[in-house]
Every structure is written in C-alpha cells, then in structure tokens.
Amino acid sequence: GRRGSPMPMTLAEFLKAAARQEFAPGYLLAGSELFFRDRFREALVKFFLDGRRGDVVEHDLAEVPVRDALDDAASLGLFAGRRLVWLRNAEALLGRRKAAGSAVGEEEGETAPQTAARHSPAALAGYFQRPQPANVVVFEATTLELDDRDDARKCERMEKLLPIPSVRLERPSTGQAARHLVEEARQEGFALDAAAARELAEA
C-alpha cells in the first residue's frame, strides 16, 4: 500500500479546491477550532452536495466500528447521488494506549482485541483503495488541541493511519482572528472596524 498520507492542507487551500470542484475521497479534520470546522463543513455542503444538507450521513466512531461506517459509505452511493459521510470522534481510531501495549493483563484481554477489531486499519485501507466516488468521508478529530504536544503526536499518528489529506484547524493568531471577523461581518453586510475586531478577538 501507499506509505504515509498526502501532505496536510490548510483550510484556505481546501476551500479553493472545493470551489473548483476538486475533492479527495476523504479528509481528516483535526484541531479544536470549531469555527473553522463549520466553514469546512459548509463548503462541502455547498460545493459537493449543491446545498443538499439532507445528504449528510453521520456516525460516531466512539460507538460504531469504522468498518460498519465505511460499509455504509460504500453502499450509499449505489442508490443515490452524492453523499457526505461525516465520522465524529475519529480519535477513537487510535484505540487506547493500554490496549496497544504488549503486557495486557487477563482482565484487559477483552478490551484490547475489541479496540483493535472495532477500528481495523485493514478496513480503512480497503475502503480507500477503492473509494465510493459519489461520497466524501470526513474523519473529525476536533478534541485535539494542536498546540498540545501529546495531541499533536496523536494528529500525526492519525495522518499516518489515514491515506487521505488532513486539514488542520490551527488556532489563528489574534491578527488573523480579527481579519476573519472583519470578513465575516462584510459577508453579512456589516462594516466592522479593524480595531474593534482585534479587541473582540483578544477578548
């Protein structure tokens, strides 16, 4: 199989590609900036689904094995148009650290194979070798704080596991956040003073 994943994309790069109707079969969305998560999702609904919000299928990977979620994704496209398959809590793919260790006690014997089986790397590789062309599958890992070293490592492990581009939702600087606020206001038909936007961002 392919080694490693495609390079991480910025949100801006993704938004430009989406507007050009260029989509990968899936994306890893990592980082806790939910404002940017919502912009990413809105762009997929607008450009990939032509605004059809009803064509988003959601699964929670804390509850559903990834194999089942991807089986669902593979079968959906056979019957309908495009679908956005949104998989929350993608951090569950990494399993628990204890389960990954070699010294698994008897009492942990149940959880270790279960964790591995729930989220099998083979199921991930299998789906993305022949992805369903009518779908985009998003793995959302928005509990990861990318400026935290442990979480940044988890993000890198997920990027190695998933053969799809990752879009990192980095926390913006105060200046960037202020520019976002000014731009959002402009799109809504309001003029927001740059100094006021900066004070809002700092608050």
Structure description:
The chain is of the alpha/beta class. The chain has 9 helices and 5 strands; from the N terminus they run αβαβαβαααβαβαα. Strands 2-3-4-1-5 form a 5-stranded parallel beta sheet, with helices on both faces. α3 links the parallel β2 and β3. α1 packs parallel to α2 and α8 crosses α9.
Order of helices and strands: HEHEHEHHHEHEHH
Helix content: 40-55%
For the report, how would you describe the main beta sheet? 5 strands, parallel
Assembly context of the chains: single chain
Structural class: alpha/beta
Total number of helices: 9
Question: In order across it, which strands form the biggest sheet?
Answer: 2-3-4-1-5
Spatial extent as radius of gyration: 19 Å
Can you give the mean pLDDT? 81
Q: What are the segments in which pLDDT stays under 50 over at least 5 consecutive residues?
A: 98-116
Strand content: 5-15%
Global shape = globular
Distance between the termini: 48 Å
Number of strands: 5
Can you tag this structure with a few keywords?
203 residues; alpha/beta; five-stranded parallel beta sheet; 9 helices; 5 strands; 13% strand
